Amino acid sequence: MDHFSYRNHSYHAEDVSINALAREVGTPFYCYSTATLQRHYQVFCDSLHGLDYQVCFAVKANSNRAVLATFAKLGAGADVVSEGEIRRAIASGISSDKIVFSGVGKTRDEMAFALEKNIFQFNVESEPELLALNEVAISRNQSAAIAIRINPDVDAKTHAKISTGKAENKFGVPIAQAQALYAKAANLNGIRVQGVSMHIGSQLTDLAPFDEAYARAADFVRALRADGHEISVLDVGGGLGVPYEAAADAPPLPFDYGTIVKKHLADLECLLVFEPGRLLVANAGILVSRVIYVKETGAKRFVIVDAAMNDLVRPAMYGAHHDIIPVDEFDSAPLLTDIVGPVCETGDTFAENRPLPPVSAGDLVAFRTAGAYGAVMSNSYNSRPLVPEVMVNGARAAIIRPRQSYADMLNADILPEWL
Length: 419
What we know:
By secondary structure, the chain is of the alpha/beta class. It folds into two domains: 4-31 and 282-411, Beta Barrel (Lyase, Ornithine Decarboxylase, Chain A, domain 1), CATH 2.40.37.10; 103-274, Alanine racemase (TIM Barrel, Alpha-Beta Barrel). The protein has twelve helices and 21 strands. The protein has helices at residues 18-25, 34-46, 65-73, 83-91, 108-116, 127-139, 175-186, 208-226, 254-265, 278-281, 314-318, 406-411, and strands at 4-7, 10-13, 16-17, 29-33, 53-58, 77-80, 99-101, 121-124, 144-151, 173-174, 191-197, 233-235, 271-274, 285-296, 301-305, 324-326, 335-340, 349-356, 364-367, 389-393, 396-401. Strands 4, 14, 15, 16, 17, 18, 19, 20 and 21 form a nine-stranded mixed β-sheet that branches. It has an eight-stranded parallel beta barrel with strand order 5-6-7-8-9-11-12-13, surrounded by four helices. Helix 5 packs across helix 6 and helix 8 (208-226) runs parallel beside helix 9 (254-265). The longest helix is centred in the middle third of the chain and has 19 residues, at 208-226.
């Protein structure tokens, strides 16, 4: 459930008219619903009732500080993959002792910064990273709390570009090699082993991979304890999918996911860390765009909008689906339409042969389920300024990232003295 709906045939975010927002901020723009963010967070927490847990929002899904601050007020921590994300999380009110640092390519400078901020845990993904972290921690007279990210070789049955838990993926340490690495970690003076970490992929629409992976994780924790390690934390990542298509089968509910968690992990006596990202923010955001032209070629009907692949790259990168709806309701029958952007790439296509009411130049459309991996992945390709982000809360609306000006974009370049 989200808090976007038609009222008197006009699309609204909570109590705010999308038409009114478009007049105020121009198009394209992203819009987020506070009520949806809050509801999704609470539903996820409700599914974990009775467990000792910490939710650490995956900042990579949406790093706007207003979004992070909303979750911080609800008690969330942060799963981060860079120094920049650590800085964003802390600046948004997330306590550093609720931050877990993931990612396969942490630099020594990033490690030092994270140690300076006393983050909760490093999720270590390789032996070279472990040895580097040990050296950095010793140089600072500190001890780094770690979990080693295990790769359980479980097929998440998701898109190949967002699968992380198979043997051929770059993430984590193969589970068959991990016990030996834990033994090495226990003898390093700058390392304090406290947990186990895993994350098998994103946008999972089946609980079976979680069932298999969590069973393996629980067995691995027990094996480590038998080896003498004091394992008090199990970070199980995120990955539960969201419904991108209204007409498609819905992914499992958080309640059903919680049942799988409790089945395998309730008796481990660990703090369980969860890293939901897309699940919390995807359906809380839309991208609003205006139709520039409608182009009929005989073979195709093209609706050309002012949003482009630089604003929302998921369809071009993953072949991802977003429901696209008119902001003003139509009574007319839909027509098969290609919805495309103005960027000079054939890949700048949002949908092909999609039923869409017969919109005209000047009409607004909304790309639904755009709150995750939308604005955060945007860029200024074709010298198109970054678009604004807006957050609504009831009848209130605020610009939480202004539209980039052409001057800002041009001034980011510095000409060398010989020019």
